[in-house]
């Protein structure tokens, strides 16, 4: 393989497999990669691995002249249509139409087709949101921080939220909350932490409505996790 093969955080292995279904079997048709013409990294082109190389690598999986993915067992997601959700940091994305293939040793045993959509347009965590939105969100929790005198001893805390559960109306019914303190490897104030976890969870669940998607058969908030910093200087 050429040395100047394009690499990215979304594809560290630097190649892409092209697949098809042959009846109930998953077949690898080709492997392609993007190659730079020279060390300036300005021009690139796509190339496919030769059939000789493919046969050398996958010789044990050839059946009737095709590479059958009998090494693969798991769930494969096929997508089509407009992208309805994108989260860059978590590589989390969904599309209007998705199909799940249940594969066992290269054989497709089941298929499930989903038509995904947003059902409630409400509050959501957005890495591209304007600073004003984040300020208003943090300001809503400021009375709790002041009640517990957090900024008397700490200039910054971080609150990590994940596993948000929502219903079809946009109510948050559960969420995991963790409190982190800068420059501390362990929890220096367990009682304060417990109080902030409880209060922030209640704060999140009081927000209505949350943005909700119907995605792959369930109502979901889709976001995987966020760390929200609260700094003393943010409110001065």
- Broad structural category: alpha+beta
Helix proportion range: 10-25%
Number of strands: 14
Helix segment count?
Answer: 4
Biggest sheet features: 5 strands, antiparallel
**Which radius of gyration do the C-alpha atoms yield?**
24 Å
- Average pLDDT for all residues: 87
- The 3D shape can be described as elongated
Tell me the β content: 35-45%
Query: Spans of 5+ residues with little confidence (pLDDT < 50)?
Result: none
Termini Cα gap: 57 Å
Q: Could you state the order of secondary-structure elements as H and E?
A: EEEHEEEEEEHHEEHEEE
Tell me what you see in this structure:
This protein has 236 residues and is an alpha+beta fold. Helix content is 17%, strand content 44%. It contains 4 helices and 14 strands. It has helices spanning 51-58, 131-139, 142-147, 190-206, and strands spanning 16-22, 25-36, 44-48, 62-63, 66-68, 74-87, 92-104, 107-115, 117-120, 156-166, 172-181, 212-215, 218-220, 225-231. Strands 1, 2, 3, 4 and 5 form a 5-stranded antiparallel sheet that branches. A 3-stranded antiparallel sheet has the order 6-7-8, with no helix packed on it. The chain is elongated, with a radius of gyration of 24 Å. The N and C termini lie far apart (57 Å).
Question: How do you describe this structure in short?
Answer:
The protein is an alpha+beta fold. The chain contains four helices and 14 strands.
Jot down its keywords.
236 residues; alpha+beta; three-stranded antiparallel sheet; 44% strand
